[in-house]
Design goal:
three-stranded antiparallel sheet; alpha+beta; single chain; 5 strands; Nucleoside Triphosphate Pyrophosphohydrolase; globular; about 30% helix; two-stranded antiparallel ribbon
Length: about 120
C-alpha cells in the first residue's frame, strides 16, 4: 500500500498504487506505475476487472490488476511525489475500509475485485 499526500483533499491517503499514463495501454500503465511508485517489477499481471471512474464527469476507464511474482527495486517517483509504504494483509485492508481509514474509491473498487477473484469469480 502507498501513503501519499493528496492535494485536492489536503490529506494523506492509504491506497493501492495507481496512476494514469496518457497514450499507454492499461497493462503498460500498470507496469510503469508499479515500478515508479514502489520500485516493483511484477512477473505476472492479471487484469481483475475494469470500471468507469466517474460516469457523471468523465469517460475515463480504470483497470485493476493483480501483480504477483514480484521483484523489488528502487522507486522512481515523479518530481513532487513522495510515498511511504505499508504492508497490509487483504483482511487488514478490508478492516481499514470498514473503519473509514481507507476512503479512496479506486482502492475500494480494486479491493472488491480482488475479493471476488479470490472467491473464484472472474470478470
Amino acid at each position: 500500500m502507498v501513503r501519499q499526500y493528496r492535494y485536492p483533499i489536503e490529506q494523506v491517503t492509504l491506497e493501492f498504487p495507481m496512476g494514469y499514463s496518457e497514450g499507454l495501454d492499461p497493462h503498460a500503465t500498470a507496469v510503469a506505475e508499479l515500478k515508479e511508485e514502489m520500485g516493483i517489477t511484477a512477473g505476472c499481471l492479471v487484469e481483475l476487472g475494469n470500471y468507469h471512474v466517474a460516469v457523471g464527469c468523465t469517460d475515463q476507464p480504470a483497470f485493476v490488476y493483480l501483480a504477483t511474482h514480484l521483484t523489488f527495486g528502487e522507486a522512481k517517483p515523479e518530481p513532487g511525489e513522495f510515498f511511504d509504504y505499508e504492508t497490509c494483509s487483504i483482511e487488514e485492508i478490508g478492516e481499514l475500509i470498514c473503519s473509514g481509514i481507507i476512503k479512496d474509491g479506486p482502492t475500494i473498487v480494486a479491493y472488491q475485485y480482488l475479493t471476488m477473484y479470490r472467491q473464484g469469480h472472474v470478470l
